[in-house]
Design brief:
The protein is an alpha+beta fold. It has 31 helices and 23 strands. Strands 3, 4, 5, 6, 11, 12, 13 and 14 form an eight-stranded mixed beta sheet that branches. A six-stranded mixed beta barrel has the order 16-17-21-18-20-19. Strands 7, 8, 9 and 10 form a four-stranded mixed beta sheet that branches.
Length: 973
């Protein structure tokens, strides 16, 4: 390339080698190279860590689901009936011996497809009687006179999975056949304790056409791993169960069902009993082996073994009548459903942060091209080819970006050791390629034509090109489609194929931010043009000069505005998602408890309990309520009654509580029972007719008490009743309207209520239709508190439970909230979202810093020149601050407004229920996205404060240095 100084030149009779291009450029701008290296390393590290973090928390979530499911559900049960009677007896007995079962077990394992991994230590095989018969020994326990039933089990590996507590393990003596009169057996310690069996006991079970089969107990064993699949896949092996016979009126009969453990070679003896022996092979999966990304293949392997090619191979090699069953596919389905509810939200965070990172990298390359524009123009003017310029810029950038990308990849692999390495490498390579190609491509596009000098490129004079308009309109169409798709389809489901439609939906928030940024970039010059002339008429040159400087800023500085708005929108959206998740859990926990704590019993609480609870640490207020969960409405009306929960409260205290917690607050007067005829009845008491009006109340009449029962006489008896005002749930209000309703309480008393107000929620009950009344209008028995709603700060659960005593349930709101976070999928997704919000805010600050660092030399030289003309230090500070304010203020205000608009647009399609409440049923609908003020304002305010602070600091630092240092001869600034 001519004019680049490369090659050999003969001067003065000597041959001199020019300095290499890359080394020269790196030495000329070490700060820019270091900044690029840090940006690439940080972005590559985040990009590589994301897929591995995703794999880590999804794998942990899958293991949690498998571990929480019982082994009976996760074990794959393959079974075959006893050999047919048409076969010779010897063949039937041979099929039940240990050798044949062992061979069948090997064939079953051979039929298991990858990635289904088998845990050989917990898998088992054997023979079990599917129709347990009644033992003939009268000394076995009989709870209701029904004999104990015994299941005979000959399972392999008893010695490996248990240790003898007394006696020894059972053995087979000689060849056991269907006619063998006695075999040895063992029982677990739990079975021995429940059924009163000990070593040496003999248990007899019925046989077919022969004397009963005697099982001599030679030992009592203790399982080594009681929770392992070996013992829990067939729960009867470890402990007996009390079985209830079908109820035929009166008390149902019950009997004990226990298991006797026989040696494997004793299985042929079961053919001589009527208990229908069955061969089985139990395949226990290795719950630590599966990876979440293999769940589709794992489900396919389970289906193949349960009802597909795997089962066909088992039937071909083991028994044509073999069959299989398992609930493992349902367990995996529950995990898939939870992940499908969380994955779209994580995709939104990933696409948002990835877009912001890409924009910042492109912004950095744009600033670098703008800084070197004169140099590149000179290279092209002196004969440099476009290919040569592109190649040298690519080499110069690659020398910095490739090692930085590799360093970021290594840091990510070390920071997140679990997960697939291929996806991490691909993400880091993508970041590195983008960083390497951004500057060369931009320079090649900007310098296609050779020119002596560049045209004026300030932001207030340059008009957008047609290509830019077309590109922006295309983005606008994509953003509109993504928003419409997200509002219509939501994030509740996702395509397992991960199609482009789902990716477009995930891009909706960031596309909204990009479109808003492009609109603001177009609008940015307009106020600058309109304000420049009025500012010129002001006294002093600072305001006019600052606006002129802001308007003559290069168009490349629009990239920081784009990066800032996109980053702030992403941070605001992610912060609102996290705030919505926390609010949904708080609300669900509040609905479950009704207050900060709930003390409740199925019976009336002691009269002294409220005072004891008030004295516990942290308690602020205690509100007693009586809850009758099985009250009947419509008594005596001739219509079918409804079961509702009648809540008796003290209107003043309960109204304050409801308003404080935000669950159906109401004024005290709307619920207060009439005082002249309170309706409170007891022996020998009565009331006169009274009429009263108030909020939501109608005229009411008095009642006459039943002197014997202490309950209110119903209207059917001809007595006048006091009508209590009530607050009702919507369903009850729709059913009865404002007409008086007779309610039969649990204690047999009756009250008449009229619905005065309707509330969807109330603190005392949740998920039930309710009526809230003044408990002063109930009988003394019905008015006795059954629950205490406690409010306070930092409540001590232990102290509350100690004060409540036995038989009383104590639930804390904080404990209820903690139970909603029961899956690593939730916690992992929250951590990723938190990291995404932090990354978005960090990239916003980084974009601002890059823009300010790029403009710092020019601003410093400007201040130095102006100081030679008499500009004071205070004026210099104001100049730089006012110059930086338009772009920073536009970015801050635009970021907050764009984040608010994105949340308002997309909230109908964002469902936070899966990530907030996981497998728990939401108490009151779905958890929706809401605007979080802190998430909107804090990042924007930080950007604004940082921009003005850096400008003021730069002016202060420049004022400390002499003008001669800044105005050196030949300085191009």
């Amino acid at each position: 390339m001519a004019g680049t100084g490369e090659g050999r030149a003969a001067r003065g009779g000597r041959t001199r080698v020019a300095a290499p291009w890359v080394r020269t450029r790196l030495r000329a701008a070490p700060g820019a190279a270091l900044a690029l290296a840090l940006l690439v390393a940080l972005t590559a590290c985040l990009a590589a860590a994301f897929p591995r973090a995703l794999d880590r928390y999804e794998d942990a979530g899958l293991r949690r689901v498998l571990d929480d499911a019982s082994a009976r559900r996760t074990t794959i049960h393959l079974f075959a009936p006893q050999p047919g009677l048409e076969l010779p007896q010897e063949e039937r007995e041979k099929a039940l011996r240990a050798a044949a079962l062992r061979k069948g077990y090997a064939d079953v394992l051979a039929a298991v497809d990858e990635p289904l991994a088998v845990d050989p230590g917990q898998s088992s095989y054997g023979v079990i009687t599917t129709n347990p018969t009644a033992a003939l020994d009268p000394w076995l326990p009989r709870p209701t006179g029904v004999p104990t039933r015994i299941a005979l089990v000959a399972q392999n590996g008893l010695g490996d999975h248990s240790r003898p507590v007394s006696g020894r393990l059972p053995r087979s003596t000689g060849t056991v056949t269907a006619a063998t009169p006695e075999v040895e057996g063992a029982v677990t310690a739990e079975t021995a304790r429940t059924l009163r069996i000990k070593a040496g006991s003999v248990i007899h079970v019925p046989a077919v056409e022969r004397a009963p089969l005697a099982v001599r107990i030679t030992g009592v064993v203790e399982p080594r791993e009681p929770g392992g699949a070996y013992w829990t896949a067939q729960p009867v092996l470890r402990e007996p169960s009390l079985v209830q016979l079908p109820d035929q009126g009166g008390d149902a009969d019950k009997y004990w069902l226990g298991a006797l453990l026989l040696p494997p070679d004793a299985a042929p003896a079961l053919l001589g009993t009527p208990a229908r022996p069955e061969r089985y092979w139990q395949v226990a999966p290795d719950t630590s082996a599966p990876a979440a990304h293999d769940v589709p293949r794992l489900a396919s392997a389970i289906t193949a073994l349960e009802s597909g090619p795997g089962l066909a191979r088992v039937r071909e090699r083991v028994d044509p009548l073999a069959d299989a069953t398992t609930d493992l596919d349902d367990v995996l389905k529950s995990f898939t459903e939870l992940r499908s509810g969380i994955a779209p939200l994580v995709a939104v965070a990933a696409f948002g942060t990835g877009t912001v990172a890409a924009v910042v990298i492109l912004m950095a390359s744009g600033l670098a091209e703008d800084r070197r524009r004169a140099e590149l123009l000179l290279l092209r003017a002196r004969g440099g080819s476009l290919r040569g310029v592109f190649g040298r810029l690519l080499a110069e950038t690659a020398v910095v970006a490739v090692p930085a990308g590799a360093l970021g990849l290594v840091a990510a692999l070390l920071a997140v050791p679990h997960g697939r390495a291929g996806h991490a490498v691909a993400a880091a390579v993508a970041v590195t390629v983008l960083a390497c190609a951004a500057l060369p491509v931009r320079a090649a596009l900007a310098h296609r034509a050779v020119s002596v000098h560049g045209a004026r490129g300030d932001i207030a004079s340059v008009r957008p090109s047609r290509r830019r308009t077309v590109a922006e309109l295309t983005l606008l169409v994509l953003a509109a489609g993504a928003v419409a798709a997200l509002r219509r389809r939501g994030t509740g489901t996702t395509d397992s194929a991960g199609g482009s439609g789902d990716q477009l939906v995930a891009l909706a928030p960031v596309l909204v931010g990009v479109i808003a940024a492009l609109v603001l970039v177009r609008l940015y010059p307009l106020p600058l043009r309109r304000l420049s002339r009025p500012a010129g008429r002001l006294r002093g040159a600072v305001a006019h000069l600052s606006l002129a400087r802001a308007g003559r800023t290069s168009t490349s500085t629009a990239l920081p505005l784009l990066a800032l708005l996109t980053a702030l929108t992403t941070a605001a959206f992610g912060g609102s998602v996290l705030a919505g998740v926390h609010d949904a859990r708080d609300h669900a926990a509040l609905l479950a408890t009704g207050a900060d704590a709930r003390v409740e019993a199925t019976h009336a609480l002691p009269a002294s309990l409220p005072d004891r609870v008030r004295r516990t640490p942290g308690v602020r207020e205690v509100t007693p309520v009586s809850v009758a969960y099985r009250a009947q409405t419509g008594v005596g009306s001739g219509t079918a009654g409804e079961t509702v929960a009648v809540v008796g409260v003290e209107p003043g205290a309960y109204g304050r509580l409801a308003r404080e917690v935000g669950l159906g607050g109401f004024p005290e007067e709307s619920l207060r029972a009439p005082r002249s005829g309170s309706g409170k009845s007891g022996p020998g008491t009565g009331t006169d007719a009274s009429t009263g009006t108030g909020t939501g109340t109608d005229a009411s009449t008095g009642t006459e008490a039943d002197s014997a029962g202490g309950s209110i006489a119903g209207s059917a008896a001809g007595a006048d009743d006091t009508v209590l005002p009530a607050i009702a749930s919507p369903a009850v209000a729709d059913l009865y309207g404002t007409e008086p309703v007779s309610v039969l309480m649990e204690d047999g008393s009756q009250v008449t209520v009229r619905i005065a107000a309707v509330r969807e929620l109330t603190p005392a009950v949740s998920d039930l239709d309710f009526l809230v009344v003044d408990r002063g209008g109930l009988t003394p028995r019905a008015a006795r508190p059954t629950a205490l709603l406690v409010t306070g700060d930092h409540l001590d659960g232990g102290a509350l439970r100690e004060a409540a005593g036995r038989g009383v349930d104590v639930r804390l709101r904080a404990e209820a909230r903690a139970r909603y976070v029961d899956s690593p999928l939730q916690s992992g997704a929250e951590r990723i979202y938190t990291a995404a919000v932090a990354a978005g805010a960090g990239y916003a600050l980084l974009a601002l810093l890059l823009a300010l660092v790029r403009a710092a030399p020019e601003r410093t030289a400007l201040l130095a020149r102006l100081r030679t003309m008499g500009l004071t230090r205070a004026q210099g500070r104001r100049l730089l601050v006012l110059e930086s304010l338009p772009q920073a203020l536009l970015a801050a205000a635009g970021g907050a407004l764009t984040g608010w608009a994105a949340i308002r647009l997309l909230s109908p399609g964002i469902d936070l229920t899966a990530i907030a409440l996981a497998a728990h049923s939401p108490p009151a609908g779905t958890a929706r996205l809401r605007t979080d003020t802190l998430s909107l304002l804090v990042p924007s305010a930080t950007v604004l404060a940082l921009a003005t602070g850096i400008a003021a600091a730069q002016a202060w630092w420049t004022g400390r240095r002499g003008s001669v240092w800044e105005l050196r001869a030949g300085d191009s600034r």
